[in-house]
Amino acid sequence: MSDVKITVGGEMEDEAARRFVDAWRRAEHGESFHERHLAFESRDALARVLTAKRSRSNTTRGERRRPPTQSNAQTDPPS
User: Fold this and answer.
1) Is residue 77, in this structure, part of any structural domain at all?
2) CA distance 48 to 43
3) Count of domains in the chain?
4) Full pLDDT tens readout for the chain, 79 residues
5) Domain-located, residue 70
6) Which domain holds residue 26?
7) Alpha-carbon distances of 74 from 56, 69, 77, rounded to whole Å
8) For residues 74 and 79, what is the distance between their CA atoms, to the nearest angstrom?
C-alpha cells in the first residue's frame, strides 16, 4: 500500500503547483514514482469526508486480526 500525504489548510495551491512542477521534471528525467496527496481547505472539510467508519478502518489497517482465543472470545453462558 502506498502512503498518502494529507494537507489541511495553508498554501494548498502553491504546494500543489510545486509538486506538479517537481513531478514533471522528474518524469522528464525518466524517474518512475507514485505519490498520492489529498488537500483540504480546513479541518471541517476533512471531517465532512472522513466518516467514523473510514476513520476506524484507516487506524486499524495493517493490524493483523487475531483469531479468538478462550481469553478474548465471547462465550455463551452454559444452559
Assistant:
1) no
2) 9
3) 1
4) 578 888 888 888 888 899 899 999 999 999 988 888 888 989 998 888 887 776 666 555 555 555 555 544 444 555 4
5) no
6) 5-60
7) 22, 9, 10
8) 15
Q: What pLDDT, on the 0 to 100 scale, is given for residue 72? A: 45
Task: State how far the Cα of 17 lies from the Cα of 41, in Å rounded to an integer.
Answer: 15
Which triple of cell numbers denotes residue 35? Answer: 505519490
The reply to whether 18 falls in a domain is: yes
Question: Cell numbers at residue 65, please?
Answer: 486480526
Question: Is 16 part of any domain?
Answer: yes
Question: pTM score, two decimals?
Answer: 0.49
Q: How far is residue 71's CA from residue 50's CA, in Å, rounded to a whole number?
A: 34
Q: How many residues are recorded in the chain?
A: 79
